[in-house]
Amino acid sequence: KAMAINIYGYPAVNPLTFWAGLFGAQTPNPLSSAVQTTAFQQLLASQFTAQRQTLLAQALTGLQNYGRQLYEAANPLTPSNTTNVFTQRTATSSAADVLTAKALPNATIASHKITVTQLATAQQNLGAALTSTGASVVTPGTNTFTLTVGGTTYNFSVDILSTDTNQTALEKIANATNAANAGVTAAVVTDTAAGTSRIGLTADRTGTNSAFSLADVTGNAVTATSANTVNVAAANAQYTVNGVSYTSQSNTVLLDQEHLTVNLLKTSTAEVTLTVGPDIQAITGAVNNLVNAYSTLASFISQNATLLSPRLGQALNQAYTIKKPDLAALGITAGPDGTLTVDQTKLTAAIQNNLGLVQSAFGGANGFAVNLKFLGQKITQSPLWTFTTPEISQAAFSPNTYFYLVVLNQSRVTGTLFSPGNLVNLLV
């Protein structure tokens, strides 16, 4: 059964007829043109409100996303970040085949003149070549021997059978040595073409502190295999830094209070220049990321000017204006649309020649990155309804339902369309 609406002053009408009349159907409509016009306007307003609700939700969600990106882009350029890009260092060698280096954050910016006169080596022993399949030269029975490494002595024993071959006996000696984890690695070196095998032992570390020796206690495992024959003697690295001589147990040496790790690769009579400087690539990368995040947010705010508070754009512009002269000296300028561009050549030159200015512009008092990090943090952590236009923020709705800030309550729509008391009954 169709519903009929009775409104004071007008006869009951079929709702289908009512709405058809609103959209221009030819069905007669007893409502006055004024009422039709009001109803139609309210319908359009409701549709507009729903559309604006969606746009506002998208604007606030986008704002939060771009605010987080701004915070993340600014953070690497601020002093509160202890590993900020201004602490990063690079180390460049003038002869990468002789030595390379890696600088830790806060390494001293300086140049070092280094010569490498000797590399550190690990001791290597190589026993006599024995016929692999021949009967073992090691006396059958229990053979005991010692291995002394850096002043520490380890005791070993191996049981050799009368049926063991030289290769089998050597494998038993190598296995017993490796099982002790004494800092020496043993292996059987086999020459299949010659049909021979020999015992090889190598210190796990370079330097004289890792030198080792073997000696028989019972039996002849060491002497029969010549396991104590030194093929490469242990040696320490010898090098000079800025004219001062040093030695090292390792070919990896630490300079600048362990902020600089240098790897010695080969000897050279010529000085090698090792230059420690700011990490230009890290700084320029961070600056470009921040400029992009700034420009993206500025464009987004401009595109959503009817929904987002003008205070956002003002805060962005103020962060730039405060440091405008310094940023201009670094090649960072603003265009007519409020977005920023970077002169990469000018920025790189500034980092190389005036790192202090770059650091001050971004991380100093009222630094560009410092202020933008604060703004990004505020956008990310504050209730989003606080960033809407004054008209929207004054709407009398709960802040927790900011997705529906401009949605009119249906009772308010009804109250607008028909004043209280006009709607009498709804018949079925």
Helical fraction equals 25-40%
* Multimeric organization: single chain
Q: How many strand units?
A: 21
Largest sheet, in brief, is: 5 strands, antiparallel
Record the strand order, biggest sheet: 3-18-5-14-15
N- and C-termini, Cα separation: 6 Å
The structural class is alpha+beta
Low-confidence sequence ranges? 1-31, 396-428
Number of helices: 12
Radius of gyration: 41 Å
Task: Choose one word for the global shape.
Answer: elongated
Mean pLDDT: 85
Summarize the structure in words.
The protein is α+β, with helices and mostly antiparallel strands. Helix content is 37%, strand content 27%. It has 12 helices and 21 strands. The strands form 6 sheets. A 5-stranded antiparallel sheet has the order 3-18-5-14-15, with no helix packed on it. Strands 6, 7, 10, 11 and 13 form a 5-stranded antiparallel sheet that branches. Strands 2-1-21 form a 3-stranded antiparallel sheet, covered by helices on one side.
